[in-house]
UniProtKB/TrEMBL annotation:
Coiled coil: none
Keyword Secreted among record annotations: no
Gene Ontology terms, MF aspect: ATP binding; D-serine ammonia-lyase activity; L-serine ammonia-lyase activity; magnesium ion binding; pyridoxal phosphate binding; serine racemase activity; threonine racemase activity
Domain of life of the source: Eukaryota
Domain Tryptophan synthase beta chain-like PALP: 25-296
Pfam families xrefs: PALP
Entry's EC annotation: 4.3.1.18, 5.1.1.18
Family (UniProt): Belongs to the serine/threonine dehydratase family.
Cofactor: Mg(2+); Mn(2+); Ca(2+); pyridoxal 5'-phosphate
Keyword Chaperone in record: no
The species this protein was found in: Brassica carinata
Protein known as: Serine racemase
Length: 356
């Protein structure tokens, strides 16, 4: 692996350097276990709880590493990104800690709870239209006006290196892990985890977990090239991005499989996390457990030897006091059966789901 260190946007060395750089600012999140979930799955499961990370998600690791990697002149001009999710809040918080400006381009219609987090952490919210072209156009204008540095949510070696620190901590604490299951969207998280874990333990399996309604990574693996979906439709709104030019080579070469699950399975996994682990995780964060418990994973003979599995719980569920798994299950079933065309704005922070 290290012989191919220049093949990818990050490597074990850059990930270790990132950990040294950010460890004074991040939480070394706990690893939780549950005998009940072990019994249900028939395996030993180890949950890396990034839902307890600063900012509520793993994103702070990469954002913190990117901000701390800037030189003095770059930092003085600040950072910019376009995001409606956890990366926006994470970058705002990282910039606040360093005392530099953060310009966050947010598409209209973004979940209020996510925008509130950006504002809480001191980010300067700049609105764009909901389209990706508008987001990129506004971000480009901000770059020209401010001279700030663009920090992409996942297609950035500094981000990938920061996210890879999760694997360093997990494998140092639980050395018997033979498999790690990671949510996949743009690929920054799983790229960092795969690069670190495969370098430390070449025999380890890295498996991506992806929702059926946004299964571009699974399709990309089959096609051998990046597949971009024209439309995504999943409750896991944090897993709708497409793979980037820096993350795809890692996913192509080092991710052993992609397990695709239905929204209903994700909701059930959320419930189990809440009831058995006593942890509230967003749909994108619960998908790893959903994958482990899925029929496609459990019946696949390729994975029968996966006995000690690390699962990354990537982000917390907000407004947890209004959580209703029954309401979510009903909405998902209704949508699946296509009994009618509906739009639901659910008063829980999963967040402001819209099904059309």
């Amino acid at each position: 692996m290290e012989a191919n260190r220049h093949k990818y946007a990050a490597d074990l060395s850059s990930i270790k350097e990132a950990h040294e750089r950010i460890k004074a600012y991040i939480h070394e999140t706990p690893v939780l276990t549950s005998e009940s979930l072990n019994s249900i799955s028939g395996r030993s499961l180890f949950f890396k709880c990034e839902c307890f990370q600063k900012g509520g998600a793993f994103k702070f690791r990469g954002a913190c590493n990117a901000v701390l990697s800037l030189d003095t002149e770059q930092a003085a001009k600040g950072v910019v990104t376009h995001s409606s999710g956890n990366h926006a809040a994470a970058l705002s918080l990282a910039a606040k800690i360093q005392g530099i400006p953060a310009y966050i381009v947010v598409p209209k219609g973004a979940p209020k709870c996510k925008v509130d987090n950006v504002v809480r952490y001191g980010g300067n919210v700049i609105w764009s239209e909901a389209t990706m072209s508008s987001r990129e156009e506004v971000a480009s204008r901000v770059l020209q006006e401010t001279g700030s540095v663009l920090i992409h949510p996942y297609n950035d070696g500094r981000i990938i290196s920061g996210q890879g620190t999760i694997a360093l901590e997990l494998l140092e604490k639980i050395q018997e892990i033979d498999t790690i299951i990671v949510p996949i969207s743009g690929g920054g998280l799983i790229s960092g985890v795969a690069l670190a874990a495969k370098s430390i333990k070449p025999s380890i399996r890295i498996i991506a977990a992806e929702p059926k309604g946004a299964d571009d990574a699974a399709q990309s693996k089959v096609a051998g090239r990046i597949i971009t979906l024209p439309v995504t439709n999943t409750i896991a709104d944090g897993l709708r991005a497409s793979l980037g030019e820096l993350t795809w080579p890692v996913v192509r070469d080092l991710v052993d499989d992609v397990v695709v699950v239905e929204d209903g399975e994700i909701i059930e996994a959320m419930r189990m996390c809440y009831e058995m682990l006593k942890v509230s995780v967003e749909p994108s964060g619960a998908i790893g457990l959903a994958a482990v418990l899925s029929t496609s994973f459990r019946s696949n003979p390729c994975w029968k030897d996966c006995k000690n599995i690390g699962i990354v719980l990537s982000g917390e569920l907000e407004q947890r006091d209004s959580l209703s798994f029954k309401k979510l299950s009903f909405i998902t079933e209704l949508k699946k059966r296509k009994q009618c065309v509906v739009r639901f704005l659910v008063n829980i922070s999963l967040p402001s789901f819209q099904f059309v």
